[in-house]
# Entry
Amino acid sequence: MGMRTGLACRKSNVVRCITFALLINAASSLAQVPDLIGYWHNWNDASAPYLELSTVDPRYTVIEVAFAEPAVGTSHQMLFAPSGTSQGAFIAQVSALQSLGKKVLISVGGANASVHLDSDQERDEFVASMLGIIGTYGFDGIDIDLEGSSVAISGGTIAAPTDVTIVRFDRCGECHR
# Structure
């Protein structure tokens, strides 16, 4: 009788251990894993040759395509075209990355682009041009990489900007709701 109780007790402990291990495993699979985010550059030069989007290291979970830039003569009508491959091939590569669970964003600006929204009309044209780019290529969203004169400010804070061009940028999301 004592031996049987001991055996039942051990079986019960094994079941508890297995149940606990399964719960721990399930909880760890639900835990958030940090994203690995990186820029993919859309140009070719000697120090940074053009690479197909499809060759991005598979460890990256968010790929930011650099860059949508203003059309010549504007500071707000954004353009993007892949420089090293056809539009169709690029769209297929974006879709293939997304099918693997990756997010592919279009990045706006960069160090060489001056983006300004000097009126509500320019803001609306900026939004329309970015929605066009997102729709054409199937991007998951926008990364904003404004530098230099694009973000010259005279007052306020990041949380509460006072410069009209920055405030208009902050309100871009209101334009397409």
Summary: The longest strand covers residues 62-70. Residues 34-176 form a domain with the TIM Barrel fold (CATH 3.20.20.80). The chain has a mean pLDDT of 79.
